[in-house]
Amino acid sequence: MTAPSVVPLPLWDLLIHLSGGRCQCAGQCGNKHAAGQGRCEHENGGFISKHTGPVRLLAAPKDPHALILPAHQQAKLSACDLAAWCRPCHDNARARAQREHRKALAELQADSTDALF
Length: 117
Description:
Elements: H1 9-18, E1 58-61, H2 71-74, E2 82-85, H3 87-116
Antiparallel strand pairs: 1-2
């Protein structure tokens, strides 16, 4: 489930304008975006397929690892730390960041457990 955009509407408008109305994912979601020459081709108001509604870009942290921060911490980020994301890229980048975070925590915990013995 995608969290709602954590920025005020004027900032969202600015980010969408600066992104050219297009998702700014460049592969952080795991997709190479070959059709878009390395950048997601989803545009605000466009359609992903005939079975989905229109794309509504989100203003969210540019760094995928910041996507796992709580909403109140994301809201404190400056405009230069934000990017426009389509829902599929946002969800996939966030899921990847969560998996990497969990893996790092498990490795850290395993290392600290080994040090005890």
